TrEMBL record:
Lineage summary: Bacteria, Bacillati, Actinomycetota, Actinomycetes, Pseudonocardiales
Keywords: DNA-binding, Transcription, Transcription regulation
Name recorded for this polypeptide: TetR family transcriptional regulator
Organism this protein belongs to: Kibdelosporangium phytohabitans
InterPro entries registered for this protein in UniProt: Homeodomain-like_sf, HTH_TetR, Tet_transcr_reg_TetR-rel_C_sf, YxaF_TetR_C
The organism's place on the tree of life at top rank: Bacteria
PANTHER family, sorted: HTH-TYPE TRANSCRIPTIONAL REGULATOR LMRA, TRANSCRIPTIONAL REGULATORY PROTEIN
HTH tetR-type domain residues: 1-55
DNA-binding region: 18-37
Pfam families, alphabetized: TetR_C_13_2 (PF21993), TetR_N (PF00440)
Molecular function terms, GO-annotated: DNA binding
């Protein structure tokens, strides 16, 4: 059910995700959703965001491990993973964390807390990757924030345009910035 919720959040956002759609997509019995998520839709949303947040953090860690001492290669692989997601979904799905983050949730502030936690996980993992590659700590967190914001924005633009060019342009600029940080003048 959590995986179905992630999928639906990626396509429709929190407002467009309902228990009925989650049950239908997951094939779970209707009553089980209330058993597993007694806190309702907000609890399911929080758990879905948490699951996806941890998944992306783990991708960052795996990419770093696959490219030891090569932060540019790691950056390329990370952006390549987003490329695969967007292309595999034929531009119909993006990031569930962003989808929830751009909506207003006055009745469920825990959703925004989950969004912040997910982004913080990613920023920390990226900053650690950059620091271990030689980027000064003073720049690593800022660069990680920039990379996440730019990549997420590019994914949104790619979906809107049905074109990967924004992600390619962001990747090129991030690579230049990373090379500059690694080899200051």
């Amino acid at each position: 059910m959590i995986h179905s919720a992630v999928r639906l959040l990626r396509e429709r956002g929190y407002s467009g995700m309902g228990f009925r759609e989650v049950v239908k997509h997951s094939g779970a019995p209707r009553g089980s959703i209330y058993h597993h998520f007694p806190g309702g839709k907000a609890q399911l949303g929080v758990e879905a965001i948490g699951e996806f947040g941890t998944f992306v953090r783990d991708v960052i860690v795996a990419v770093a491990a696959a490219h030891p001492g090569d932060p540019v290669g790691a950056l390329r692989a990370f952006i390549g993973a987003w490329r695969q997601i967007v292309e595999a979904e034929n531009y119909h799905a993006g990031c569930p964390v962003v989808a929830v983050g751009i909506e207003e949730h006055e009745d469920a502030p825990q959703l925004m807390e989950a969004v912040v936690a997910a982004f913080d996980q990613w920023r920390t993992a990226l900053a650690e990757l950059l620091t271990s590659a030689g980027v000064p700590e003073s720049r690593a967190t800022t660069m990680a924030t920039t990379a996440i914001a730019a990549t997420e924005g590019a994914v949104i633009m790619c979906r809107a345009r049905r074109d990967m060019r924004p992600l390619d342009e962001v990747a090129a600029e991030l690579e230049l910035g990373l090379r500059s940080a690694l080899n200051p003048p």
